[in-house]
TrEMBL record:
GO cellular component, one term: plasma membrane
Alphabetical list of Gene3D superfamilies matching this protein: Calcium-transporting ATPase, cytoplasmic transduction domain A
UniProt lineage: Eukaryota, Viridiplantae, Streptophyta, Embryophyta, Tracheophyta
Protein location: Membrane
Membrane spanning stretches: 84-102, 304-326
Keyword terms of this UniProt record: ATP-binding, Membrane, Metal-binding, Nucleotide-binding, Transmembrane, Transmembrane helix
Domain P-type ATPase N-terminal, residue spans: 42-108
Keyword Nuclease assigned: no
A Pfam family hit: PhoLip_ATPase_N
Name the UniProt record assigns to this protein: P-type phospholipid transporter
Enzyme Commission code: 7.6.2.1
Top-level lineage group: Eukaryota
Length: 387
């Protein structure tokens, strides 16, 4: 009875859970390792070997900004002129440079320049704040094995594929890791994935039995493993891989995968091997680029401007065609029907001998006049949603 009692004292609830996980087994097809889409090779505790073998893996530095110093002006201008109203005001302002315009170019281009400049500055400030957040994230500190069983504090952005890192309680994982061991004898740890899927309940991960006894810093001095797994993808809930350790192949599953931006909870520390860094991590694979902020009102405004612009062009073109026809037919037997227009004193507009040119000038004049009217309508439409 005493022997049975001692065995029960050694039995832990975590051990029961570990046994349940092992009973389930892995449902993933590990025969795909080495084929297309499953070609990632990681030399654990030997990150420099990847370059010797010809592997080019990305750095662990991430960027979520929308612009750079080189692309800010062109991309920001493109974003501004995606709004049809801005593009229309620009074109109408350029047309005012002709002598046929009923208003000056300054009255059209100056307000547009002020609005576009203010909006570009706002976009720049928002992107700069994203840059500051990226800098803070990339400069976080984690302990990385540097040989002889010593772990040195290293910034996240300097982590490489194959590094063995030590993450302590209530800290985030800096990259996608394979769990090697934890402070628990059976190699389990508790993970909070709220930043990934919004769930607040803790998830349990478990290391392989062959590595769960690596619980001290000095145990990693001579550690050498080869991990072969799937290529980077956006699926948070699947993982296929194998670990070559001490001459034996051990299958890996999502139970051993620790994802970047998830947090270690209720566990003093864990040791993990880095397999995905930077934009190869699953959280970055699921990330989207900063969206272009366009409200429903702006989209509706674009459709209204398209309609008004087509109407303007149709009216101006139709009127100019008929004006050219009537101007050409105005001269008969050397006399003009519309004598009151004084075509004999006209250089362009009413000269029957140059009817096509007169029609074109009439088109420009009509466009200018209708543009002025249309600008007033658009300005009223843009002010209405703000009232």
């Amino acid at each position: 009875m005493a022997r049975v009692r001692r065995r029960l004292e050694k039995l832990k609830l975590s051990t029961l859970y570990s046994f349940a996980l092992c009973a389930k087994g892995s449902t993933e097809d590990h025969s795909k390792i080495g084929t297309t889409g499953f070609s990632r090779v990681v030399y654990v505790n030997d990150p420099d070997r990847h370059e010797e073998e010809g592997f080019r893996y990305p750095r662990n530095e991430v960027s979520t900004t929308k612009y750079s110093l080189v692309t800010f002006v062109p991309k920001s201008l493109f974003e501004q002129f995606r709004r049809v109203a801005n593009f229309y005001f620009l074109v109408s302002g350029i047309l005012t440079l002709t002598p046929l315009a009923p208003y000056s170019a300054v009255s059209a281009l100056l307000p547009l320049s002020v609005v576009i400049t203010a909006t570009m500055l706002k976009e720049g400030v928002e992107d700069w704040r994203r840059k500051q957040q990226d800098i803070e994230l990339n400069n976080r500190i984690v302990k990385v094995h540097r040989g002889n069983g010593s772990f040195e504090e290293t910034k996240w952005k300097y982590i490489k594929i194959g590094d063995v890192i030590k993450v302590e309680k209530d800290n985030f994982f800096p990259a996608d890791l394979i769990l090697l061991s934890s402070n628990y004898p059976d190699g389990i740890c508790y993970v909070e994935t709220m930043n990934l899927d919004g769930e607040t309940n803790l998830k349990i991960k478990q290391a392989l039995e062959v590595t769960s006894d690596l619980q001290e810093d000095g145990d990693f001095t001579n550690l050498r493993q080869i991990i072969k797994c799937e290529d980077p993808n956006a699926n948070l809930y699947s993982f296929v891989g194998t670990m070559d350790y001490k001459g034996m192949q051990h299958p890996l599953s999502p139970h051993q995968l620790l994802l970047r931006d998830s947090k270690l909870r209720n566990t003093d520390y864990i040791y993990g091997a880095v397999i995905f860094t930077g934009h190869d991590t699953k959280v970055m694979q699921n990330a989207t680029e900063p969206p272009s902020k366009r409200s429903k009102i702006e989209k509706k405004m674009d459709n209204i401007i398209y309609l008004l612009l087509c109407s303007l062009l149709g009216i101006a073109l139709l009127g100019s065609v008929f004006f050219g026809i009537w101007t050409k037919a105005d001269l008969r037997n050397g006399e003009t029907k519309r004598w009151y227009l004084r075509p004999d004193d006209s250089t362009v507009f009413y000269d029957p001998k140059r009817a096509p040119l007169a029609s074109f000038c009439h088109l420009l004049t009509a466009l200018m006049t209708l543009t002025c009217m249309m600008k007033n309508q658009i300005s009223q439409l843009m002010l209405e949603p703000q009232i």
